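User: I'm putting together notes for a lab meeting next week and I want to include a structural view of one of the chains we've been expressing. I don't have a solved structure, so I'd like a prediction I can at least talk through. The sequence is below, exactly as it appears in our construct file.
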Amino acid sequence: MADLIHIDSAADDRLADYRDLRDVQLRKHLESEHGLFVAEGEKVVRRAVEAGYRPRSFLMAERWLDGLGDVLASSEAPCYVTSEALAEQVTGFHVHRGALASLERRPLPSVDEVLAGARSVLVLEDLVDHTNVGAVFRSGAALGFDAVLLAPRCADPLYRRSIKVGMGAVFSLPWTRVPDWSEALPMLSERGFTTVALTLSADSVPITEAVAGVDRLALVLGSEGHGLSTRWEQAADRRAVIPMSAGIDSLNVAAASAVACYVASSR
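Assistant: Thanks for the context. Below is the predicted structure for the 267-residue chain, given as structure tokens.
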């Protein structure tokens, strides 16, 4: 069972994993160096532990102990108990969901492991906003996709904000990064997937038409600013668009992913 350790100083070194959680650059360096990530909220913490991620520690206010009592009972990691005001001082924001956990990252699986048995896959190129990455994972998990592949420069799905927005979908949806970015789509085609790029290309067809009759589908989404690179756009087997009206040509990538995943799930 986790030891309950009461802490009353924000300067306590045992809270280092939780310090300045809103500083993205600092967190990238710290989490990469120490091989950790932080989960926020009772449901998300529970999902992370149930998915097999090993806790380094927990941080929570007294009133949240009962809600995660079974999780704490199954762990040997320390649980740091603080006031909500001190937790806010350490993390840099109001921890309104009450519970945080620092967990150990695991080595990323190979592309072959992630694709084994998969029929519907999301492929993300250079999405740099953690909120969008989390939202795409949530849509994929909710609408029956089996896996996610990310280009090397995509934002971290295990960053706290990504996990929170995705409601822990990153723990249930297999994912990894594609090491050879330039050959990612041909690699999927060779494995029997039909790659469908969501793009405003001149030869794009409505998404319903693009996914019709497709067995193994790889739905390809591009970055928030410029969309897909020319290389990925041209390498895709098909190009698709979500038909728009009122003079609007596109949706935010998170919204577009939800629409496209819904259409793909009913193919």
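A couple of points you could mention at the meeting. Residues 147 and 217 are 11 Å apart (CA to CA). The two ends are 47 Å apart (CA to CA).

User: Perfect, that's what I needed.
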